[in-house]
Amino acid sequence: MNSASQTATLDQTAPAYQEDRVKVTEGVDDSHVTVGEAMLDNAKMSMRDVHVHYGDTHAIKGISLDIAPNEVMAMIGPSGCGKSTFLRCLNRMNDTIDICRVNGKIQLDDQDIYDSNLDVVALRARVGMVFQKPNPFPKSIYDNVAYGPRIHGLASNKAELDDIVENSLTKSGLWDEVKDRLDTPGTGLSGGQQQRLCIARAIAVSPEVILMDEPCSALDPIATAKIEELIGELSENFTIAIVTHSMQQAARVSQRTAYFHLGKLIEVGETSAIFTNPQHKLTEDYITGRFG
Amino acid sequence: MTKQSMSKVEAHLARRYAREKRFRFYGLLSVFVGFAFLVVLFTSIISKGYTAFQQTYIQLDVTYDADILGLYDNPTESDWLYANYDGLIKAALRERFPEVTSRSEKRELYKLVSSGAKFSVRDSLDNNEELLGTTATLWVLADDDLDSVLKGHIDRTLPEADRRVKDQHLVWIDSLVENGEVEKRFNTVFFTHSASAEPEQAGVWGAIKGSFFTLIVTLVLSFPVGVAAAVYLEEFAPQNRWTDLIEVNINNLAAVPSIVFGLLGLAVFLNFMGLPRSAPLVGGLVLTLMTLPTIIISSRAALKAVPPSIREAALGMGASRMQTIFHHVLPLAMPGMLTGTIIGMAQALGESAPLLMIGMVAFVAEVPQGITDPATVLPVQIFQWADLPERGFVERTSAAIMVLLAFLIAMNAFAVYLRKRFERRW
Ligand SMILES: Nc1ncnc2c1ncn2[C@@H]1O[C@H](COP(=O)(O)OP(=O)(O)OP(=O)(O)O)[C@@H](O)[C@H]1O
Ligand SMILES: [Mg+2]
What's the pTM value of the predicted model, to 2 decimals? Predict the structure, then answer.
């Protein structure tokens, strides 16, 4: 199936899911080539022909993608298409799953992150992660943020550590709200505050890349707006890859968007282009299906 | 909704409520039955045993007669130690009951006082030469038969031949009671002495210390080993046929009758390794074998209960596996592990069968001073006393059960406290 023959579908008003599903399954085969510019010249992270298997399940089927420095890359796609799996390859969180096998090449600044010389602990200090459900440690707010710097030995004394904690909390927009109760448990904060605490915790080790897996899915609109604003600010200093189910969110926070479908990367491009003028039929169906 | 279907729903609702009510009632009933059994158990034990916390003493005017004592000029330390204090008590009794003259009657009279009374006479004299020749009024330990009469445990209406206490004893006792020369006091002997053939001199202190040493050995061995095994199996071991086999076997071990562990201990620790018989060290080793499965299973459950999001958070921060476990998982699992350990310890405290096999049932009159001294433990002490016919031992059996129950309740309360105190929300 080629992308030229499917402009007529836009004005089809059928919202029925069934029909949607039929189109979706027929739209991809193993020989699919990603539409758009997946590869860049100056990539911060670059993935080449990545395959992931969970036992017999082929979850990622040969994806190549580059993420530019200081950009926010949004990853969208229907549930189960492998967004989380792909994201978790980028800091090797999949290592913790016994049955998970990753093939292909993933580079961070021209360094292969699956290289046997590379220490996974050091990698995760450079590529931080924020999870779907806020998961602060059941420790004080201070200890939550100080944990990373402590285990990586980033601060040589208490004053430096205090600085790091204050900085990170300020950057995550939480400092004013918690500066008087740093020793209270992080689990006692509201959901949105907890998620910002997790972001503060991630940026406390000054990573280069931050991976976020649906960071707002458990939050209300106001907390979501705060996090989105925060993502915008963070992209000045960090490279961010974010998985989201909200297309509005992808449109608001990201510069580029990648559309995943059944373990394949269907289309990638400038966010504005993807949302206004998707090239591939599947992308278009997904986007129009959601926007109605 | 149509009217018809509405009424259907209502009928269904009524049935549902009735079912719920019935279920609640059954639940309440079973709780009540359990509680009733507990009440029966406690009342029977307490009503039988509470008298053991009091002990009868007799007032005697004892004259420190040097001749009777067999002490002459400048007595040495050992002269004092082996002096005839019994003679003083006998003399005092003869004086108190001058009407008793025949030899056989005198012998009966002497039975009013415990054979342990001489020690309190010795202590009152305290190697003091200046007191020789003077007279002191002492309260000495009464014999358990006198004690039983005073506590009303002896039925006076029975014919003399069927009674433990003869008529002439009753006459003497009544005379003592009339003159206020007997008194019931708090039974300190019970809490400070070890096993004895005489009920009035028998106590649980030796057994408490024996239990304490045994449990210390058990705790020191089983907690670290159990936690380490649980952490390895839960966090590091690969999932394969071997770990499945180990898992099945641990669960099996938890169900093995404890006497089997006793036999194993007898074969391995005593016969093969030659460790001392009857010692808390061996008892602790055997109980370790018994409690390990309990601790491992509960520790694994506690580890499993730690939410995976905490592990992911730590790993995502770049913590190593060890760091994740020691910084986050173990602290969160610790209350559960401790609860399991305390419950295992409580089980071990109440265990007697395996200890019988390794000789902790021997009669031990000395209070043990360490983990290699011969000792007995509370449940075994109870087991031994329960076999003895004297009325004094019957009440002491129940009293010892109360002591054991008190320890068990304290331990379980501590487990509940720990769980409440460290319960965390995430
Ligand atoms: N731990 C796992 N073990 C086995 N299969 C897994 C595991 N995690 C994911 N999968 C499978 O891999 C595929 C991709 O899952 P993934 O979680 O990456 O989807 P996703 O795009 O993140 O979905 P969602 O939007 O619902 O989060 C799915 O088919 C899923 O069943
Ligand atoms: Mg996901």
Answer: 0.80
